[in-house]
Design brief:
Elements: H1 3-15, H2 20-34, H3 41-53, H4 57-66, H5 68-85, H6 100-137, H7 141-149
Length: 150
């Protein structure tokens, strides 16, 4: 199989009838959701978004999995930002000194605070990534030609 043929197959697989802008939104949502600071949630949420919004499931999951290193790296910053937003909440350093039930309650609160912080960042990030990805995808001749035909 030649390289040109492989490229066409990949573009067709990723695009699946989508314009560059819609594919860019799919990738941006997958990447942003992939950065949710709760491990295990992004895959299910991306699948739900793909089916609910009729997005390309392989593309959104590929972006989700590409974001996994960022998800792990951003857990602590999101917890800290959430802690600043909710200053009266649990402090991560105090967790070892609490009982088991209190630790579980405080971990849940920390996760909720981190999710709120993620929500504040994710919206603008999706908008910026969609714009950037759209510009990049429009440079791919097969997608640009398909967009003018849509």
């Amino acid at each position: 199989m030649r390289l040109g043929s492989i490229k066409r197959d990949v573009v067709r697989w990723l695009r699946q009838g989508m314009s560059p802008r819609r594919l860019a939104l799919t990738l941006a949502l997958g990447f942003a959701v992939g950065c949710i600071p709760v491990v295990g949630v992004p895959t299910v949420l991306c699948a739900a978004l793909a089916f609910g919004l009729r997005l390309n499931l392989p593309a959104i999951q590929a972006a989700n999995y590409a974001a996994m290193p960022f998800q792990l790296a951003l857990i602590v910053p999101f917890v800290r930002l959430g802690g600043r937003l909710f200053s009266a909440g649990p402090q991560p350093g105090a967790l070892p000194h609490l009982g088991a039930v209190n630790v579980l309650n405080d971990l849940g609160a920390l996760a909720a605070h981190a999710l709120v912080a993620w929500l504040l960042v994710a919206g603008p990030a999706v908008v910026l990534m969609t714009a950037a990805f759209t510009a990049m995808l429009r440079r791919i001749p097969a997608l640009a030609a398909a967009e003018s035909g849509d």
